[in-house]
Amino acid sequence: MSEAPKVFFILGGPGSGKGTNCARLVEDFGYTHFSAGDLLRAAAKEGTSEIAKKIGAMIRSGNIVPSEITVALLRQTLQEHPSGVGYIIDGFPRKADQAKMFEDGIARAAGIVYMQCSEATMEERLLSRGAGDAKRDDDNAETVRRRFRVNVEECEPVVEAYKKEGRCYVVDANRDRDIVYADVKEIFIQMGEKPIR
Ligand code: UP5
Ligand code: MG
Fold first, then answer.
1. pLDDT value of residue 133
2. Of which family is this protein a member (predicted)?
């Protein structure tokens, strides 16, 4: 990449609606979207290497994959998918060292949005998602508890740090889909972004 890419981070606890809202941002603004979790799940499936096995095990247990692995994966993915419009990355950074590694080495985020959601709401969404095709290995009661704990201990401090820097927009993600997304879209417009439709 000759110059730093334009990147927005969409953060929020497990089941807060990061993926759902990113899909709509892609339609309205034309961004290229990557979910760090989806990239890691694909990497875990792809290989039989020790690293692939390690990633799979970390995700199944609800723990955070070592930052070097995730940042390298994101760097490679952005290089392989040039975007004239920009990227939205969801579910990353989840730890302070990841945030620093990405922002120092790849690009400083152009904007950060935090989907604030109660654990009760997130749990209900995750456990009901587990019922259909979209079932994920980590959508069981035990792993969800671990994901919530990691979220409080590791991920929320990243959000707090961004809030202190005055860089983080907060959305109440407990509400109905369309109401939540209307706020998300408005934030992007406030950040100077232009809808393509
Ligand atoms: N839904 C969404 N919005 C709704 C609304 N307003 N009202 C009612 N229902 C709503 O949504 C979850 C479910 O809720 C869906 O069924 C949706 O239809 C419904 P979704 O948009 O999927 O929420 P999202 O926040 O994307 O939830 P997800 O489960 O993907 O969040 P996680 O943060 O847990 O998952 P992620 O894939 O980001 O990470 C998984 C694991 O990967 C982590 O636990 C970790 O092990 C690993 N990981 C790393 O190690 N490092 C990283 O950097 C990233 C991930
Ligand atoms: Mg997701």
1. 62
2. Belongs to the adenylate kinase family.
* pTM of the model as a whole: 0.97
Does the beta carbon of 59 sit less than 6 angstroms from any atom of ligand 1?
yes
Ligand 1 pocket, residue 15 CB under 6 Å: yes
Spacing, Cα 191 to ligand 2 middle (Å): 23
pLDDT along the chain (197 residues), means of 10: 86 98 98 98 89 94 96 97 97 96 97 98 90 79 95 97 98 98 98 94
- Tell me if 63 CB under 6 Å of ligand 1: yes
CATH of domain 6-191: 3.40.50.300
Q: What residue spans define the domains of the chain? A: 6-191
Cβ of residue 70 lying under 6 Å from some atom of ligand 1: yes
With the most atoms of ligand 1 within 8 angstroms of its CB, the residue from 20, 41, 133, 156 to mutate is 20
